[in-house]
UniProtKB/TrEMBL annotation:
GO terms for biological process: bioluminescence. It holds the Pfam family LuxC. It comes from Flavivirga aquatica. Keywords: NADP. InterPro entries: Ald_DH/histidinol_DH, CoA_reduct_LuxC. One of its GO terms (molecular function) is acyl-CoA dehydrogenase activity. It comes from the Bacteria. This is Acyl-CoA reductase.
Length: 352
């Protein structure tokens, strides 16, 4: 199978997903194999929502829309242009996926197949309904994928390389268990925003998308603010208020109530607005319904700190502060070439 055939298959997958990426699902009779897959995928979406309380219709739809935007001929060609991909000898590459947000492991799945390798997927139990169905669709669109895609619920074995994502503790286990294989091992990272006090209300409103999308469960979600000493949070709280209906989600509300009770009993200083709390804390990983913040006095010193601690940081959201910063509101809209942990997975796959 040639690279262009693989690209074409994923473009058709994007066309299929587009039917489900808007608030109202709308069938397109021009999409290939719809008679086989359309109703079934509607059912899988329902199962995914019922199985994982964090996978709401809105968040699943947002994830699908992101992949619809990515899986175009132009985007795929732009992503792959720097690489020499044809004439790859296929290897078996295992993926151990996280399950914090819908289809969180899809980029690795795409990267392995688009580069010409075979994939062995071990999914998280939290996100197990969507990808196997999409894999079946791919096999119909491009029969050469049959035999190149496998799923397992057991310990992965008989593979040549691995991409594994987990917590800091499981990452240490992965590093030991996979030490004899080429690997990309990902652990916990968090994203931050650096504010100067000169942000507009629109900037901060966009930032709220980085904070609240997927309930803050993604590594690209902003979990901490770095603010100049003396920063006043009034404008920030006003800008995020549009997200107040989030408190109507029971799982979110339970986390909010629990963390608020812990902070009050511990007599921690924090600010809250009825659906969200901010707390001064040096850590990067904040609990659900909470955002940590830390003051800085000198931007040069702050840049040195962020450089020293970059292994803990996925994205830095700011406006004219640092190289490779992410614009406000854009953390959950990565391009295909925005690699997790800044590790080029295509380069890795071409070298095994």
């Amino acid at each position: 199978m040639q690279l262009q055939e693989r690209i074409n298959a994923f473009v058709k997958l994007g066309d299929f997903l587009k039917q489900f990426s808007n608030e109202v699902i709308q069938k397109n009779d021009n999409v290939k194999y719809n008679e086989l897959f359309f109703d079934g995928f509607k059912h899988q979406l329902k199962l995914a929502e019922e199985h994982n309380g964090w996978f709401t219709k809105e968040n699943i739809r947002f994830s699908l829309a992101s992949w619809v935007n990515a899986l175009t001929t132009d985007n795929l060609n732009k992503w792959l242009a720097p690489y020499q991909i044809n004439n790859i000898t296929p290897k078996q590459v295992a993926i151990i996926m996280a399950g914090n947000i819908p289809l969180v492991g899809f980029h690795d799945f795409l990267s392995i197949l688009i580069s010409g390798h075979h994939v062995l997927v071990k999914q998280s139990s939290n996100d197990k309904h969507l990808l196997p169905y999409l894999a079946k669709y791919l096999e119909h669109v491009e029969p050469h994928f049959k035999g190149a895609i496998a799923f397992t619920q057991d310990k992965v074995k008989n593979f040549d390389a691995v991409i594994a994502t987990g917590s800091n503790n499981t990452a240490r286990y992965f590093e030991y268990y996979f030490k004899g294989k080429p690997s990309i091992i990902r652990n916990n990272r968090n994203s931050i925003a650096v504010l100067t006090g000169n942000e507009t209300s629109e900037d901060l409103k966009n930032l709220s998308e980085d904070i609240f999308r997927y309930y803050g469960l993604g590594c690209r979600n902003v979990s901490k603010l770095l603010v100049p000493r003396g920063y006043k949070f009034d404008t920030f709280f006003e800008a995020i208020y549009d997200w107040h209906p989030i408190i109507n989600k029971a799982k979110y509300a339970n986390n909010y109530d629990y963390n608020k009770a812990v902070y009050l009993m511990s007599e921690f200083d924090m600010l809250e607005n009825g659906f969200f709390m901010i707390k001064e804390d040096s850590s990067y990983a904040s609990p659900i319904a909470t955002l940590f913040y830390e003051y800085y006095d000198d931007t040069a010193v702050l840049k040195q700190k962020l450089e020293a601690e970059k292994h803990q940081i996925q994205c830095i959201v700011s406006k004219g502060f640092i190289e490779n910063e992410i614009a406000f509101g854009a953390t959950q809209k990565p391009q295909l070439w925005d690699y997790a942990d800044s590790v080029d997975s295509i380069e890795f796959l071409l070298a095994i």
